[in-house]
Amino acid sequence: MTDKERITQLEETVKKLIEIIQSQTIKQVIVLDAALKELRDTL
């Protein structure tokens, strides 16, 4: 495998990781938002 191929593979891996992290963050924000709404309804 050439250096260029390795770099391309690394870039693809990093992109996938970023996508996973972003989707996890979005899920957490949705959960937090729902929890806040519940709190508001309780108060």
What does this structure look like?
The chain is an all-alpha fold. The longest helix is centred in the middle third of the chain and has 40 residues, at 3-42. It has one helix and no strands.
Give a quick summary of the entry.
The protein is mainly α. 93% of the residues lie in helices and 0% in strands.
List how many beta strands DSSP finds.
Answer: 0
How much of the sequence lies in strands comes to under 5%
Radius of gyration: 19 Å
Helix content: over 70%
Any descriptors?
43 residues, mainly alpha, 1 helix, rod-shaped
Layout of secondary structure:
Layout: H1 3-42
